[in-house]
Structure formats: C-alpha cells, structure tokens
Design a protein that fits this description.
This protein has a two-stranded parallel ribbon with strand order 1-2. The radius of gyration is 17 Å and the shape is elongated. It is 54% helix and 7% strand. By secondary structure, the chain is mostly helical. Helix 2 links the parallel strand 1 and strand 2.
C-alpha cells in the first residue's frame, strides 16, 4: 500500500499470504484492493512478467510453475520458430 501511495503500481500474490485466519486474510486483501493494489496469484504474476509466450524462457518458467501445458507451449514455440 505504501508503494501505491508513492505512485507505483503494486501487485500482491494472494497465495503468498502469511496467515491461517480466513478473516484476517480477507480483511487484508480488501484493504489492499481498496488502496489500489492489484491482487493476483503467484503463477499469473510470473507469467505476466514473461510478457510473451514466445519468450525463450517460457517453457522453463511454465515447467518451474508445474503447469501441465508447459510442454505444449514449448512445442508450439519451437514449431513457430521452425525448429
């Protein structure tokens, strides 16, 4: 929330929350959303950092995130490049 107040775009990965209390988790997320923080999950945020599935890192990133379609993305990328 401080980053938003200082003019930065701020993102939070909800699955990185550090509480076992559902009430505290929901209250904290609501406060962040009200302050302008973008709430997402870690996998989505990492994929967005790629910017493009054609990135040479895409296959490795998806595999590291244990996304079952990572192999398909790698195959499509290689096919598009004619490899």
């Amino acid at each position: 929330m401080t980053a938003v107040r200082k003019g930065y775009n701020s993102y939070v990965a909800v699955d990185a929350s550090g509480t076992f209390s559902q009430t505290k988790r929901e209250t904290g997320l609501l406060r962040m959303v009200q302050a302008g923080v973008v709430v997402s999950d870690y996998a989505t945020l990492i994929v967005e950092l790629l910017g493009d599935n054609a990135s040479p890192l895409a296959g490795e990133v998806y595999a590291a995130l244990d996304m079952p379609w990572a192999t398909l993305v790698g195959q499509l990328t290689q096919s598009a490049r004619g490899k």
